[in-house]
Every structure is written in structure tokens, then in C-alpha cells.
């Protein structure tokens, strides 16, 4: 296809022709025309080259030579002339034929009808080509927009209509940012191209640069905040753009292609998030701190202000709050204070909705707007700028259930994409919680085992020391005093007493850490005698009772006297 007649040469219309000489006869030339089917030929005469046709020789005697046929020389042109100049020359010379010369050589001729035929053929091909290009343009699956030097839309493909939901008749002549519904077009009354954001817009910069340098720009990522549907919601969309310069009605224009890669970029961000969380959880010991770090990472993708883990074990009437994470600027204590009457809450009654529902069936519970939520606490949360909440099950077993509660200050903050992201994160969250749960159980078992071992070791040590002492004891009196001496190492007491019956004698020992009143001494005496009588069915004669009182090593005479027995126990030996 010829882009311009000025750029096209005459090679395509140049024709080779037979040549006759000046001494050839007219009869011989006409025979050659008839036998070989020549339409025209060239003759070289002293006065120049002449293009002859059969009708040029009509009426000329057959025996006459061509030099005597009174033929007029044809005008000549250079081989390097443009097609546009050639047409002008043909019009000026009023000739149907021009002879082409190249440094006195004869490449051929150009005829007016041949030039017209060539141009008609090229015009036909150009039209067919334009129709093909138009069909490709309109049917391209990739959105294509043609913009002029002012970034105003000249033409759009059908893919743009389907992708963005616009119609050509409504957008032709508008600036490209208005066509794409960029939210910043509303920042300035003059529209797209005048807001502070527009000065940094990569789309605008790519179009202007392409027009300026006249070279394409490839594979540039551009993020555009788009207002869709009712023009109230803003969603960021990422496009991969290419810009190519063209001429449109003798002025500069740009073909702009847009490939929406928003989903791909979101998927890449999700993969990075999951990788980051896996990395965090793999490098740390099980515990709540890992979950907190995961929430910090999750906040980059979901507009969170608050996150909580709730656990419930079979048989419990309370749901435990195991973890509370929030952004620094959000204060949860007023909400808890108004709902529960205190600023810190570790347990929630099972009867409080939606706790009971969540404990009975596995489901995702989404409250998109707390202001119209179904529970009483919803309006309290909304009062303190909580707008949407989601309860998401992480572990759901008969004996053990874990739910994740996420809250946002935005209405309808949680989308289907967020739920899909939580589905992907659920296995790693659940595994982390399970490992933390088992880790705590193991720590408690270890602590209990260690405590029991220490207690048993201590008991054995006391028994060992006591057995050594008993080996040298010759009387029951010494034995009971020895027992009382070691008893304080096992039991923390204020007063200890022992009762010993040998024959008709009764030995009664009292060991005190603090001063005793007479009343308390009588209470102790009465309690031990009653216990002895119940055990042995032997009545105690008080005249045979020998009471001995002595002080413990840690006796404190300044301590308040014991006036009443708060608690006591007796052990038969």
C-alpha cells in the first residue's frame, strides 16, 4: 500500500518497450506491430526519442523510413521522480506517454493510463486493507483506543465497550481518563488532565511521550482508580498498556492498547502474602505472636482494624477469647465496656449471639453493615466506628472449635476475593493454632510433671531425714516432737498439735508460730480429744492429760494472737 504519492517511486509503472531505428521502414515497423502484438514502441532519431503507436504511422508511405515520417520527440523525465511529480508532468505535457531517462540510458516509458490503472489498483488494495484493519481493530479481544494529540478519543474497539461498559457515540471526543472513568477526573472542574494526580499519571505521560518522540512504548503497568456502576465505589484496576504513534488526518495520533491485569496482580500479591505468612510461621515457635504477625501481613490486603480468635471446647458454657489484635489507633475498650460492663473480656457467654449458632454449625457469618445488624451489640460496635464484621471458622471438631472474627471500619469491607484469600490461608492458620494448642498442653504437662517430681523429691527428702532422726529416738515424746519439728516444712501452719496415749498417760504437744489465746488452746484440745475418742472408743481422763507447749523456730511474739481457728485438719497416726 502506498502511504503517500510523494514517497512512492515510478518503478511500479515503468514499462519496457521495443526499440526501432531511424532507418527502419514504416512497412517493416507495422509488420512487427502486427506480428508481435506491439501497442507502442520507441524510435531513436537525431532530435530525440519518439514514442510511436500504429495510428501515428497511418497515411505514411510504407517504403518511407522513420526518420522521414515527421515524428515529434516525446518529453523525457528522470527515473528518480516521485509518482506525484510524474502525474503533474503528464498533465503539463498533455501527453499520454513520457520517456524515462537514467544517465542517458533508456529504462523504459510511463503511460498515463498505466499510472491511473496502478493508482486504482493500489486504492482498491488500500481500501481492502483498511477494511481488514478495521475488522481486526473492532474484533480484537484486547481493548484498543485511538487518541489524538490532545489525548481525546477518536475511535474505540468493541473490547473497550465490553470491558468498561461504554458506547462509542458517548465517548468519542472525550479525554481518555473520562472514558476509563478515572476517579480523579472529578478532582478538577476542567476534568481529566488537570488534577495533581494527572501530572503523575503514567497513562497520560506515555501518550504524550509517544507523540513527542514518535516511537512506541511497550508493556507499561498503570494503576487507575476507577469509579464504576453508580459512581460511588472506587476500585483500583491495573492495566498493561502499549502506545504506538500513527498519523490521523495528517496529525499525530496514538493507538493505545489496554490489557486488564488486575486479577493477575492480585493473585501475585496474595502469593506474596501467603509466602510471607508461611515464612513467619516456619521460623518461630508455636504461639499467639505468630498469629499477630500474620494479621499484620493480612492488613495489607484486607481493611482490618480488629481481629480476634475465639475457642470453644465441648462442654464449656463460655467461649474463650484467646487473642486480640487491633491497629494502634483503634480503641476496643469502650465497646467492651458498653457490652459487658468491663474493659477487658476473656470469656463470652455461650448464650450471647452469635456464639451459640457458631458452636453448633460450621458457617461463615458476614455482617456487611453493623448499623443494620441483627444483634444488640451490632449497634454498639457501629457507634464506635465498626462497620462490618465476619466470623470465619478455622477449626471445627466435635470437641474443639476455633473461630476468627475480623472487623473493619468500612461498610461491606469483606468481598468474595477476601473470602477466597481466607480459604487459602485457613490451613496454615489452623495448623498454627493446633500446634500452639498442643504446645501449651505439652508445656502444662511438663510444668505439672516437674512440680510433681519436685514435690515427690521433697517428700522423700523429708522422709529420709526423718527416718534418720527416728533411728536415734528412744521415746514417743521425742518422736512426736520430732514430727512436729519437720511438719512445718511440708504444711504452712500457725499452730500444730499432737496427742499421744501411752497406757493411762496422755501426752499433748502444742507447737505455735504465733501467740495463742486460751480460747484457741481449748478449741485445739477439744478437737483432738474428740478425734481420738472417735477413732479408739477410749475415754480420755483429763487429770491424766499432760499438756506441753513449745515455740517453733520461726515463732514471732509480736504477731497478732490467734483468736479463732479458721481451718484445721487431723491425721490419725
From TrEMBL:
One Pfam match: CBS
Coiled coil: none
Protein's GO biological process: regulation of DNA-templated transcription
PAS domain: residues covered: 129-174
Protein name, as recorded: PAS domain-containing protein
Species of the source: Aerophobetes bacterium
Organism classification: Bacteria, Candidatus Aerophobota
Amino acid at each position: 500500500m502506498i502511504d503517500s504519492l510523494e514517497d512512492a517511486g515510478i518503478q511500479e509503472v515503468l514499462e519496457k518497450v521495443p526499440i526501432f531505428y531511424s532507418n527502419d521502414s514504416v512497412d517493416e515497423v507495422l509488420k512487427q506491430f502486427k506480428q508481435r502484438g506491439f501497442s507502442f514502441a520507441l524510435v531513436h532519431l537525431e532530435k530525440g526519442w519518439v514514442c510511436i503507436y500504429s495510428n501515428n504511422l497511418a497515411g505514411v508511405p510504407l517504403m518511407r523510413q522513420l526518420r522521414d515520417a515527421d515524428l515529434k520527440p516525446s518529453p523525457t523525465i528522470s527515473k528518480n521522480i516521485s509518482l506525484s511529480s510524474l502525474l503533474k508532468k503528464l498533465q503539463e505535457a498533455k501527453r499520454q506517454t513520457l520517456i524515462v531517462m537514467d544517465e542517458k540510458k533508456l529504462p523504459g516509458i510511463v503511460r498515463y493510463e498505466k499510472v491511473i490503472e496502478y493508482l486504482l489498483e493500489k486504492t482498491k488494495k488500500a481500501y481492502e486493507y483498511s477494511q481488514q484493519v478495521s475488522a481486526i481493530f473492532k474484533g480484537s479481544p484486547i481493548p484498543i483506543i485511538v487518541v489524538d494529540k490532545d489525548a481525546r478519543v477518536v475511535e474505540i474497539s468493541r473490547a473497550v465497550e465490553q470491558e468498561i461498559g461504554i458506547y462509542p457515540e458517548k465517548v468519542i471526543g472525550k479525554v481518555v481518563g473520562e472514558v476509563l472513568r478515572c476517579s480523579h477526573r472529578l478532582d478538577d472542574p476542567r476534568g481529566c488532565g488537570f488534577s495533581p494526580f494527572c501530572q503523575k499519571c503514567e497513562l497520560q505521560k506515555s501518550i504524550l511521550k509517544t507523540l513527542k518522540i514518535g516511537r512506541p512504548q511497550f508493556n507499561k503497568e498503570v494503576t487507575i482508580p476507577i469509579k464504576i456502576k453508580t459512581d460511588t465505589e472506587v476500585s483500583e484496576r491495573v492495566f498493561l498498556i502499549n502506545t504506538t504513534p500513527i498519523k490521523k488526518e495528517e496529525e499525530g495520533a496514538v493507538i493505545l492498547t489496554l490489557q486488564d491485569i488486575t486479577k493477575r496482580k492480585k493473585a501475585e500479591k496474595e502469593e506474596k502474602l501467603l509466602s510471607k505468612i508461611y515464612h513467619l510461621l516456619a521460623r518461630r515457635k508455636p504461639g499467639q505472636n505468630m498469629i499477630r504477625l500474620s494479621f499484620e501481613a493480612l492488613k495489607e490486603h484486607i481493611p482490618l482494624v480488629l481481629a480476634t480468635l475465639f475457642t470453644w471446647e465441648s462442654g464449656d458454657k463460655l467461649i474463650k477469647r484467646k487473642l486480640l489484635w487491633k491497629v494502634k489507633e483503634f480503641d476496643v475498650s469502650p465497646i467492651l465496656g458498653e457490652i459487658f460492663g468491663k474493659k477487658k473480656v476473656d470469656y463470652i457467654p455461650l448464650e450471647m449471639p452469635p456464639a451459640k449458632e457458631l458452636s453448633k454449625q460450621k458457617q461463615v457469618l458476614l455482617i456487611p453493615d453493623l448499623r443494620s445488624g441483627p444483634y444488640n451489640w451490632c449497634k454498639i460496635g457501629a457507634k464506635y466506628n465498626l462497620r462490618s464484621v465476619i466470623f470465619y471458622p478455622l477449626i471445627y471438631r466435635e470437641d474443639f472449635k476455633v473461630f476468627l472474627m475480623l472487623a473493619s471500619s468500612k461498610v461491606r469491607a469483606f468481598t468474595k476475593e477476601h473470602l477466597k484469600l481466607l480459604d487459602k490461608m485457613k490451613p496454615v492458620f489452623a495448623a498454627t493454632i493446633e500446634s500452639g494448642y498442643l504446645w501449651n498442653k505439652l508445656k502444662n504437662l511438663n510444668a505439672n510433671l516437674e512440680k510433681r517430681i519436685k514435690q515427690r523429691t521433697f517428700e522423700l527428702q523429708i522422709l529420709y531425714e526423718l527416718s534418720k532422726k527416728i533411728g536415734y529416738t528412744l521415746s514417743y515424746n521425742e518422736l512426736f516432737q520430732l514430727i512436729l519439728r519437720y511438719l512445718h516444712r511440708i504444711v504452712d501452719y500457725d499452730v500444730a498439735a499432737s496427742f499421744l496415749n501411752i497406757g493411762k498417760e496422755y501426752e499433748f504437744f502444742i507447737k505455735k508460730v504465733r501467740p495463742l489465746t486460751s480460747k484457741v488452746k481449748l478449741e485445739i484440745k477439744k478437737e483432738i480429744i474428740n478425734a481420738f475418742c472417735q477413732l479408739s472408743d477410749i475415754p480420755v481422763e483429763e487429770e491424766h492429760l499432760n499438756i506441753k507447749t513449745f515455740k517453733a523456730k520461726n515463732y514471732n511474739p509480736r504477731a497478732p494472737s490467734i483468736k479463732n481457728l479458721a481451718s484445721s485438719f487431723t491425721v490419725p497416726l
